[in-house]
């Protein structure tokens, strides 16, 4: 086997949809470059993906899927619990597995070379610490935006400067925040991760604490890799580069190394929505999807529904079966009755990237998860942002105030606001032009010789060097 082919990366995402998608696209890029990839799922998700994972592995002899226990099969639905389960039961199993797969370990007998490098989810510091203890170099991959990583990294400084915690009761959320480098002119309290709002004396929210700690701990990894581009997030990347051992901006990976959607999706797509879109006029449809984790209240659903109906455009709405709780079925019937035959389609899960690419889609009402954000950016679709948690608050600020490819509806969920914002996103030439210009810029980044394409090559070289 040629030296280059001996590079074998074990990739280890947390088992949430957005993370799995990004890691699978990354793996596809590594396979194309000639490397071997072991994709580490949790038992629960590998069972859930079943035949799709087997098919993907069968189609690529240098790819295999293995799994570690996640303790609680339902943990996939709750991020803090999931991270907890992974860092205990999952971590022990991961250590044993990596010890057997690394050079000098027992190794599997399926023809794969020993694992020479780990690329672990950037919210699991245990994964790179264990790898390094076992003599395997490790890279942290944060699947969120560079601006959000920089914000998390800045939280200790914000506490030190007295920017955090906010005054009792949250204070005025429109007050500018100083202390996140490069964002002084536009970042407000409301654009920081939402957990910052509930702090009292220090940043003791468990999820925020874990994510801030993981971000700080990324400095120990050989490098930090991000699914973004220099043209979208150049200043944030430059600030991160000052703090990390190395930084690679290699995205948007889904546009560079498309992986078969079927192998990544934990839910079954409703393909009927593509035929429905085919029957709609050019740029007439509002596509609504709030990602794989968000749960909304009945009141929020009702406000969205009324706002959408009043805006008057046909819409395609992804309502996952677990999104609204017990009232979901009745709410659905009401939704469909309210808009009339053929004017709206509600599906449990859609082939999102194809939907966004469809000529009938005029705007994307999104929760501003990073994958959804870059998928919308790549297709040049104007966005209406209604962020829930984590990096979503800052992503939506970049959309509304920095890139101008959409409107940030943050913190307000009232029918009039939904109606007005959706109308503006559908009709504004300015927003559409910015969305188009951004898509063209990103297309240049990922084309041969573009910044992300070059960064991906540099990363593959770096992994080969670490593997030699
Ligand atoms: N997605 C999809 N079909 C849907 C809704 C979402 O394929 O009906 C995909 C979407 O394309 C994206 C991922 O699920 O790749 C969601 O990731 P994101 O980071 O946007 O949000 P999260 O689910 O992590 O909150």
From TrEMBL:
It is an enzyme of class 2 (transferase). InterPro entries: UDP_glucos_trans, UDP_glycos_trans_CS. The keyword Glycosyltransferase applies. The keyword Transferase applies. Gene3D superfamilies: Glycogen Phosphorylase B. Signal peptide: none annotated. It holds the Pfam family UDPGT. Its EC number is 2.4.1.-. Keywords: Glycosyltransferase, Transferase. GO terms for molecular function: glycosyltransferase activity. It comes from the Eukaryota. Belongs to the UDP-glycosyltransferase family. This is Glycosyltransferase.
């Amino acid at each position: 086997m040629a030296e280059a082919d001996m590079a074998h990366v074990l990739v280890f995402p947390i088992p949430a949809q957005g993370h799995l998608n990004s890691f699978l696209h990354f793996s596809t890029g590594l396979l194309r470059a000639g490397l071997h990839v072991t994709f580490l799922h949790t038992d629960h998700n590998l069972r859930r993906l079943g035949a799709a994972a087997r098919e993907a592995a069968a189609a690529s002899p240098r790819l295999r899927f293995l799994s570690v226990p996640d303790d609680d099969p339902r943990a996939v639905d709750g991020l803090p619990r999931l991270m907890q389960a992974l860092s205990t039961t999952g971590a022990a199993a991961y250590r044993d597995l990596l010890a057997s797969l690394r050079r000098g370990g027992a190794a599997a007998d399926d023809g794969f070379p020993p694992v020479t490098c780990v690329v672990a989810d950037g919210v699991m510091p245990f994964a790179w610490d264990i790898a390094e203890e076992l003599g395997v170099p490790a890279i942290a991959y944060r699947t969120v935006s560079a601006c959000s990583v920089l914000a998390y990294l800045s939280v200790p400084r914000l506490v030190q400067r007295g920017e955090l915690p906010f005054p009792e009761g949250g204070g005025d959320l429109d007050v500018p925040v100083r202390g996140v480098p490069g964002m002084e002119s536009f970042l407000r309290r409301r654009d920081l991760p939402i957990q910052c709002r509930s702090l009292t004396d220090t940043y003791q929210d468990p999820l925020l604490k874990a994510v801030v700690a993981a971000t700080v701990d990324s400095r120990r990894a050989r490098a930090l890799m991000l699914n973004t581009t220099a043209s979208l997030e150049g200043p944030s990347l430059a600030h991160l580069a000052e703090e990390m051992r190395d930084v690679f901006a290699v995205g948007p990976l889904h546009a560079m190394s498309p992986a078969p959607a079927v192998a990544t999706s934990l839910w079954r797509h409703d393909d009927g929505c593509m035929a429905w879109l085919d029957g709609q006029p050019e740029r007439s449809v509002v596509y609504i999807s709030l990602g794989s984790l968000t749960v909304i209240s009945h009141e929020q659903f009702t406000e969205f529904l009324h706002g959408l109906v009043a805006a008057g455009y046909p819409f395609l709405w992804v309502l996952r079966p677990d999104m609204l709780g017990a009232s979901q079925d009745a709410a659905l019937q009401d939704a469909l009755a309210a808009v009339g035959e053929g004017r709206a389609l509600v599906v449990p899960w859609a082939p999102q990237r194809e939907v966004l690419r469809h000529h009938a889609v005029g705007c994307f009402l999104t929760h501003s998860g990073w994958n959804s954000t870059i998928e919308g950016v790549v297709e040049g679709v104007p966005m209406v942002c209604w962020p829930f948690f984590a990096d979503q608050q800052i992503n939506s600020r970049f959309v509304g105030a920095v890139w101008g490819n959409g409107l940030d509806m943050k913190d307000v969920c009232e029918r009039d606001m939904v109606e007005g914002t959706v109308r503006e996103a559908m009709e504004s030439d300015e927003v559409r032009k910015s969305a188009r210009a951004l898509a063209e810029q990103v297309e240049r980044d990922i084309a041969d010789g573009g910044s992300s394409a070059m960064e991906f090559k540099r990363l593959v070289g770096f992994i080969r060097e670490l593997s030699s």
